[in-house]
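Hi R.,

As promised on Friday, here is the backbone we talked about, encoded as structure tokens. Could you run it through your design pipeline when you get a chance and send me back a sequence?
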């Protein structure tokens, strides 16, 4: 599994139509774009996929559409997290895992559990899951920061928890996670802008936002760094860095959906309470794409 999930994972957007319905044609076009562009694996219904605004039925339909379009070509990771441990255990025990390689499970939000509470939460999920689990730490969204020692406890005590997507934004914290977990435990960047230095520190790759638009370029950067070719990796990193900053200037996934619309991959609609980027930011994104010759 480490080899399957090493490199570029893409946190896929969920395309919508103007009326708010899921754009399944756009979703299949995006899936093909990622496969052809060299993404190593696909992440469905993460934060970037606006999963919290999808109904139970829509979540299944989105997953089915990606699995059909992927047709076993790339590993698939399914986002399945929340702040009700009992409900998550029930979902995991009932989940049809055919075509799904792993689960990405965010730390419980709003409840603000202690570190011991996080350990017990993930122990319960580990016991219920039929497939491997990747932890997801993103304190800027959840208001709880899973500390390195906590990750270490979980890594040693739960053998089917195989890694963590780390989006704390702290390079020092992520290095400490690498230092206290088993060698085979995967540490995956959750911040596009920090991915290159984190690869140098020993991370296994990234679950990316910008990869939705530029899987080829970002994959080349990651694999160059994994092969210790940092000169090539730096060139790509700095080419994309300004765009990455623009993507998050007014929130995710508003920025990446704006880019995908400019590239004619899918339309630029979000579900409330999220809204499209401002006209000013849209102009900056278009200017970048033209100047870097990604579009005319």
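Update: got your reply. Pasting your designed sequence below so it's all in one thread:
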């Amino acid at each position: 599994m480490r080899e399957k999930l090493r490199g570029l994972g893409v946190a896929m957007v969920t395309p919508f139509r103007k009326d708010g319905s899921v754009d399944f044609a756009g979703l299949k076009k995006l899936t093909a774009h990622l496969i052809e562009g060299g993404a190593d694996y696909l992440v469905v219904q993460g934060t970037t996929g606006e999963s919290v605004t999808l109904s139970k039925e829509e979540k299944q339909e989105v997953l089915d559409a990606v699995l059909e379009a992927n047709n076993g070509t790339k590993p698939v990771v399914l986002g399945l997290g929340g702040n009700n441990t009992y409900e998550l255990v029930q979902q995991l025990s009932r989940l049809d895992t055919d075509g799904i390689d792993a689960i990405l499970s965010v730390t419980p939000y709003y409840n603000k559990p202690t570190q011991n509470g996080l350990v017990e939460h993930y122990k319960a999920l580990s016991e219920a899951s039929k497939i491997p689990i990747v932890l997801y730490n993103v304190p800027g969204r959840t208001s709880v920061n899973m500390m390195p020692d906590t990750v270490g406890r979980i890594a040693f005590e739960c053998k089917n928890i195989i890694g963590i997507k780390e989006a704390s934004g702290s390079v020092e914290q992520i290095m400490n996670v690498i230092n206290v977990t088993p060698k085979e435990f995967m540490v995956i960047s959750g911040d596009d802008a920090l991915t290159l230095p984190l690869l140098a520190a020993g991370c296994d790759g990234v679950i990316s936002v910008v990869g939705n638009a530029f899987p080829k370029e970002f994959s080349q950067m990651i694999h160059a760094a994994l092969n210790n070719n940092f000169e090539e990796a730096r060139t790509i990193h700095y080419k994309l860095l300004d765009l990455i900053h623009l993507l998050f200037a007014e929130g995710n996934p508003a920025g990446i959906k704006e880019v995908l619309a400019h590239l004619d991959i899918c339309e630029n609609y979000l579900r409330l309470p999220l809204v499209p980027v401002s006209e000013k930011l849209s102009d900056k994104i278009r200017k970048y794409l033209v100047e870097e010759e990604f579009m005319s």
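One thing I noticed while checking it: The mean pLDDT is 97.

Thanks again,
M.
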